[in-house]
Amino acid sequence: MSDDEAEFRDFVRVQMEPLRGLAYLACGDWQTGEDVVLTVLARLYARWRHIDNPLAYARTAVVRAAIDETRRPWWRREESVGHAMPDPPGPDDGTSVVDERLRIRAALLKLPPRHRAVLVLRYLEGLSVQQTAEVLACPEGTVKGYTSRGLDGLRQILGVELVADEDAEVHHEIRPV
């Protein structure tokens, strides 16, 4: 096994799950996300020697491929049963955190793909505006606009006030809007 191949295997071992999670958040489906990641890793392997920053390349390719997947005609016709929200949990059963994550996930899926991608990259992946712009190949102003419109969309869908702090985390409080 060559050194390049060993480096690539190490990269895949370490980055497979984070990339899969990123793809899932960008497209909203685990199977599609995994397909996207495997396709991107196959392309990355072919170019491995020529890429200076493989993680940046992989993130960019995963987000773009996930967005492209959601634009395919068959995507709009079929919807998994798994997208349905479960009944709200009873009091003090310890599932309120999970319920809130599912609620936010469902709200993210209602946003346009580019808005969702910007919010995932900015607040869940912790990228800066400049890094997000590089990943999506768009101007920084576009990232700022998509961030604003995406957060507004989440506010409307969730009926909560979202507050983004300087550490790139989204905190939310339930307040009627």
TrEMBL record:
Residues 102-151 form the RNA polymerase sigma factor 70 region 4 type domain. Transmembrane segments: none annotated. Keywords: DNA-binding, Sigma factor, Transcription, Transcription regulation. It holds the Pfam family Sigma70_r4_2. Belongs to the sigma-70 factor family. ECF subfamily. This is SigE family RNA polymerase sigma factor. It comes from Dactylosporangium maewongense.
